[in-house]
Amino acid sequence: MSFVSYLIAGIGLGSIYAIMALGYTMVYGIAKMLNFAHGDVIMIGSYVIFLAVGKANLNPYLSILLAMVFCTVLGVTIERIAYRPLRKAATLAVLITAIGMSYFLQNIALLLFGADTKSFPDVFGLPAIRFADGRLTIPGITILTIITCIVIIIGLELFINRTKQGQAMLAVSEDRGAATLMGVNVNSTIALTFAIGSALAAIAGVLFCARYQALNPYTGAIPGIKAFTAAVFGGIGSIPGAFIGGLLLGIIESLSSAYISSELANAIVFGVLVLVLLIRPTGILGKQIQEKV
Fold first, then answer.
1. What is the phi/psi pair of residue 291, to 5°?
2. Spatial separation of the C-alpha atoms in residues 45 and 70, rounded to whole Å
3. What is this structure's pTM?
């Protein structure tokens, strides 16, 4: 493979990380919580598609819609049961709850589906596209992933800036108390944020599993950590930051695997994150918060 091929593969992988990172960055930006169970919601959504397509023989796109609905309900339920009672609790309590919820979802998947890795169905069946007289071949799933990511980013930006619900999210992210005084229903706004992030998790899950064609109860663990890394990298709380962070992460991982070592790729990715945060602690597009005295 050429450098351009590795670069495009990295952009495709980074687009998946960006979609995953949106769940982290939206929840943190609006609810000021880190939902470490997000990677496992991705895994659960992938299992829904696996069962719908592979077992029930449903239409692939209908199966994706079903997974989005299921993950949306799951995300809202997690927020209502696990996170809402802890909004005023210490950060450590929220963190322990998030990790506990992650293990809970993983163990539910283990009980239902077993630990064996399943072969994920070819949901899209897209052919590779060849350029430059066949010297450059791009998998169809990579092109679809990049396009999907761009559409989602643009759609979210329009939703946040052009709709009443989006403006409510901005108000809650800036000052929850003031938003309440202005008539914003904070509980509904945060629940909507979890719903959107969880629906996107289903999309990210099918794109990730279609790329690697494998699924097990731990499928969402490492990608979830990398997506969180991408959110921090770009500036957690920033939608464009999640996009940029995801792309950079995917490109660094792809090029590191190709030209340095596939075994060291993850270490290089996290090393670059540490370097960036030493230079700019808020991330690439993160805002510096001024403390009031």
1. -75, 135
2. 7
3. 0.92
